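TL;DR need structure tokens for one chain.
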Amino acid sequence: MRVVPSQLSRRALVLGPLLLLVPNDAKARRRSGGGGGSRSPFALVIGGVLVCAILAANSLFGRNLSPKGTGKKLRASREAVGGFTEFNPVKRTAPRRGLSPWVFMLPLAGIVIGGAYGWATVPPEDTISASFPICASGARITCVVDGDTFWFEGIKYRISDIDTPEISEPRCAEEKALGEQAKIRLQSLLNAGAFGLKAGLRDEDKYGRKLREVYRGGRSLGAQLVDEGLAHHWIGFKQSWCG
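>> reply
TL;DR here they are.
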């Protein structure tokens, strides 16, 4: 079955983004412990260019050729009726088609989406280093509030990819105990070495806290708290820690 350009365009629309999102940076995957890994933006752009080249080649060289043997059958049928109709075969060639707009639109969309996704999944550099005590009463500059909130240089941050047990208003004794453990654990993680902060779609929440993910060596410290049972992945609402 011959694939027409429209079919190829539809398949590229579906398969192109999927191919662009395939992890291709093995070193980054090993660095992140296999969880989420980074994607190389350069490889994503190259993938989009290859899709563009395939579509362009199909539009330039794909032709609607007539079925083989059609001329012979037509000539034989006219000779069979006694030659009442004079047949003068004319060699026909399929017209060359111009480039379809999809040739540029689909790959461009793939490059933009793939590049944005690649940029969004590259972990930040570990450029922040400080000593984090537990926050006390009074002015707060650099300290840890609880398992998912801390101050750094006078700015309050909320770790955006997790939710930890409440300490100030726990729903049960178990939640408060886990909240205290999460706070101490976050303090030890932040004090363990340099780390990086990564912004998401929202810059801050309704309380004015900066929403950031925290990474060290390409691995999310929030994900580490989840693995240790001290946090939940943030899914848009709080999950219960009681019972």
